[in-house]
Design brief:
CATH architecture of the domain at 52-181 and 193-207: 3-Layer(aba) Sandwich
CATH superfamily of the domain at 52-181 and 193-207: Vaccinia Virus protein VP39
CATH topology of the domain at 52-181 and 193-207: Rossmann fold
Distance between the termini: 37 Å
Oligomer: single chain
Strand order of the largest sheet: 3-2-1-4-5-7-6
Order of helices and strands: HHHEHEEHEHEEE
Number of helices: 6
Largest sheet: 7 strands, mixed
Shape: globular
Structural class: alpha/beta
């Protein structure tokens, strides 16, 4: 808890999985997971996927393998990035510039930093022609992910297949990471029931 009785911001810095999981179990015991993820923390942050050191490192390893030794160096692009925290956590680990974009449509009460560029996902891809796309918690029933998979650009799709994006995206070839470190607002931390993962599209098996 913070000095004013508010909960800490678990994304204030990148913490180990064990520390984050312990914190989330404490929230669940108090029945506070939903309110916490809806902004009841000192930063007023909204949480969908809840990041930790091991999870971000796993993602970074795959992205770096995908980037390889290519001479051309277009950026990595995070679309629908919210407050851009995943980009901030990834950037020190990635051998390429990462650009965070979001349409900022007002659907959620998110505090967007000025450096998160206001761009629709397809506009962002058109503008930057990225080498790799990261999308975390695509809005439920959105077809954007499906359209971008058809582009052939390597994609990391993060989330719960039943609660974000469109399930038809999984009709396309993909590779689940089966991460032990994926945590989200809809998990049951005490029962160890975890519902999210990183799914890779247009990626080679040897990268995973």
């Amino acid at each position: 808890m913070g000095h004013q009785g508010e909960y800490i911001d678990i994304h204030g810095k990148l913490l180990p999985h064990a520390v984050v999981l312990l914190f989330l179990r404490g929230l669940e015991r108090k029945g506070d997971v939903k309110s916490y993820c809806n902004g009841a923390n000192v930063a007023g942050r909204w949480f969908f996927q809840i990041f930790n050191k091991e999870f971000v490192e796993e993602l970074a390893q795959v992205i770096n393998k995908a980037l390889g030794l290519r001479r051309k160096k277009p950026p990595v692009l995070e679309i629908m990035s919210g407050d851009g925290r995943l980009t901030e956590f990834l950037q020190p680990l990635i051998k390429r510039r990462i650009i965070a974009t979001d349409s900022k449509d007002g659907r959620y009460n998110i505090g967007y930093p000025k450096w998160v560029e206001t761009l629709d996902a397809t506009e962002a891809v058109r503008k930057y022609s990225p080498s790799f796309i990261v999308m975390c918690w695509e809005p439920h029933l959105s077809m954007t992910g499906i359209e971008l998979v058809k582009s052939g650009i390597p994609i990391a799709w993060i989330g719960n297949p039943n609660m974000c994006g469109h399930t038809d995206i999984f009709d396309h070839p993909h590779i689940p990471l089966e991460s032990r470190y994926a945590l989200s607002r809809h998990d049951f931390f005490l029962k160890q029931e975890f519902k999210t993962d990183i799914f890779f599209f247009n990626c080679k098996p040897e990268w995973i």
